[in-house]
Backbone:
């Protein structure tokens, strides 16, 4: 609505406001016709003049609904109301029945003018109605004041009540629009967060399964290449191990795409999967990987088992590829309220403070992926190493109550 609009009403007329406007138009026309008809049927001396002024008042009034600026610009509305009021005063001076037209004029003034100006116009119209009717009757009494005053009070109460309801309705409409927009923003944010979380999950799984498996296959094929042509039996063994690693990683890929339990954990416990991982690593590479369990075994949630298995896979792969170690020790410790996995090797070691940033060509995503896994479960990852002194990696996860539906025996 234009800021200079004359009323606190909808900018676009609704069926209800149209019906109310037509009722007001019919009331004004009906009252003017009644004034003219009474003058003619009663045979009053100025019947012709009364009918002419009533018709003129109707024509001036009809210009308001036709001109859109009357509804949109308060100054134009004030001039139109002043013209209608002037013609009505002339009609009131000719016929006492014209006092009835004051009632619809109240609604027009309150609707089209500001609150203060509308109240002043209604008061002046009521005074004019009382004075005009008293002049025609030649007397003055409380009854003459009660009628126009009561009509003015009813009009004020109805119009101001409607405007209050309209303001409250508009406020609720704006709140609903803001709530709808906020819900849409929240849905988009949740969708984006879900996409990012799934992308992060796939990135971790790819790094801890396919990337590590491909690295192992590459090392095995290099070993087979070095064994040829002098040691064909050793080369064939390396090729068989590489083929088995490819089969295992294909199964892993199918599983993490479907978000299922890793094949290494199917039908066994985390301890069994870690023991098998050590045996496979020792068989495929020139390293001795040993596994042990300490503490009383406790049931772990599947998410904990998957996280610790992936950390162990990543740690052993890094040991094989970068550390040049001959032995690696994996220890799974049940410490009452938490579970710990320690991976210790006797390799070349490194300075944890000088790790290069992850690079798509050179790699370096393993530690970041491991930390992300453990952080998501409330755990920690600690690394202790120094050049020439091997590496010790410690993963800690808090134990959830074994009664959770996710817990595995």
Residues:
């Amino acid at each position: 609505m234009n800021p200079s609009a004359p009323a606190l009403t909808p900018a676009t007329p609704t069926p209800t406001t149209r019906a109310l406007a037509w009722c007001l138009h019919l009331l004004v026309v009906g009252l003017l016709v009644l004034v003219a008809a009474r003058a003619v049927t009663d045979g009053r001396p100025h019947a012709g003049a009364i009918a002419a002024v009533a018709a003129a008042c109707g024509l001036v009034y009809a210009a308001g609904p036709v001109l859109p600026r009357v509804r949109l610009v308060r100054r134009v509305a004030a001039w139109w109301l002043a013209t209608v009021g002037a013609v009505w005063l002339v009609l009131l001076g000719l016929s006492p029945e014209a006092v009835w037209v004051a009632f619809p004029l109240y609604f027009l003034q309150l609707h089209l003018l500001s609150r203060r100006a509308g109240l002043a116009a209604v008061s002046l119209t009521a005074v004019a109605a009382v004075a005009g009717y008293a002049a025609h009757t030649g007397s003055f009494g409380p009854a003459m004041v009660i009628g126009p005053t009561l009509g003015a009070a009813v009009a004020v109460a109805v119009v101001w009540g409607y405007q209050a309801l309209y303001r409250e309705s508009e406020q609720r409409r704006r709140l609903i629009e803001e709530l709808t927009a906020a819900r849409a923003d929240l849905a988009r944010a949740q969708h984006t967060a879900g996409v990012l979380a799934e992308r992060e999950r796939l990135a971790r799984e790819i790094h801890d399964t396919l990337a590590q498996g491909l690295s192992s296959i590459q090392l095995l094929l290099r070993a087979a290449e070095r064994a040829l042509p002098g040691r064909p039996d050793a080369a064939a063994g390396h090729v068989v191990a590489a083929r088995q690693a490819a089969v295992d990683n294909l199964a892993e890929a199918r599983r993490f795409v479907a978000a299922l339990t890793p094949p290494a954990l199917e039908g066994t416990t985390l301890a069994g999967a870690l023991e098998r991982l050590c045996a496979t690593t020792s068989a495929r590479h020139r390293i001795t990987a040993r596994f042990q369990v300490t503490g009383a075994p406790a049931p772990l949630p599947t998410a904990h088992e998957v996280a610790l298995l992936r950390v162990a896979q990543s740690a052993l792969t890094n040991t094989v590829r970068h550390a040049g170690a001959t032995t690696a020790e994996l220890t799974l410790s049940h410490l009452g309220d938490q579970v710990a996995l320690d991976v210790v090797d006797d390799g070349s070691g490194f300075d944890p403070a000088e790790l290069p940033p992850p690079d798509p060509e050179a790699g370096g995503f393993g530690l970041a992926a491991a930390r992300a896994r453990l952080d998501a479960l409330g755990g920690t990852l600690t690394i202790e190493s120094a050049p020439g002194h091997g590496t010790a990696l410690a993963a800690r996860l808090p134990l959830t109550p074994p009664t959770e539906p996710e817990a595995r025996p």
Notes: DSSP finds eleven helices and seven strands in the chain. The beta strands are 288-294, 300-301, 327-334, 338-345, 380-385, 391-398, 407-408. The CA atoms of residues 202 and 295 lie 33 Å apart.
